[in-house]
């Protein structure tokens, strides 16, 4: 998936691509661990916003949970909430998709 994102986003700021790859990997890991279905990654965007959607076949809606300080797992959605400018879950007729958005920096922002 990381290669797919790097190739799909070759013209985007490498920091944004890195963040997108980390977040998409976290969401995909949740699908593998909890949804137990195949998943599909979709990338959409404009000049200012990158949107990544990870669709799966489960109707279970993920939620950020309070965790013990020493918990070894379960921080994927906290990471998503901390890095993405926006994120959410949309239900579909076949499951759901988790989406997140990252702002794309303009050249003068560097």
Would you mind describing this structure in some detail?
With 110 residues, this protein is α+β, with helices and mostly antiparallel strands. It has a single domain, classed as Histidine kinase-like ATPase, C-terminal domain (Heat Shock Protein 90, 2-Layer Sandwich). 34% of the residues lie in helices and 28% in strands. The protein has 3 helices and 4 strands; from the N terminus they run ααββαββ. The protein has a 4-stranded antiparallel β-sheet, covered by helices on one side. Helix 2 packs antiparallel against helix 3. The longest helix has 22 residues. The two termini are 27 Å apart. The model has no long low-confidence stretch (mean pLDDT 86).
Domain module count: 1
Structural class by sheet pairing and helices: alpha+beta
| Percentage of residues assigned to helices | 25-40%
CATH topology heading? Heat Shock Protein 90
CATH class category: Alpha Beta
Termini separation: 27 Å
In total, the number of strands is 4
- The strand line-up of the biggest sheet is 1-2-4-3
User: For the record, what is the CATH homologous superfamily label?
Assistant: Histidine kinase-like ATPase, C-terminal domain
Unreliable stretches (pLDDT < 50, length at least 5) are: none
Helix and strand run: HHEEHEE
């Amino acid at each position: 998936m990381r290669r797919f994102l790097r190739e799909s986003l070759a013209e985007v700021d490498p920091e944004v691509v890195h963040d997108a790859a980390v977040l998409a990997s976290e969401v995909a890991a949740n699908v593998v661990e909890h949804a137990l279905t195949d998943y599909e990654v979709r990338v959409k965007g404009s000049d200012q916003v990158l949107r990544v959607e990870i669709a799966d076949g489960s109707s279970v809606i993920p939620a950020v949970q309070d965790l013990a300080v020493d918990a070894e797992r379960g921080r994927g959605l906290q990471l998503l909430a901390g890095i993405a400018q926006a994120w959410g879950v949309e239900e579909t007729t076949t499951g759901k998709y988790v989406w997140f958005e990252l702002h794309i920096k303009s050249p003068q922002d560097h």
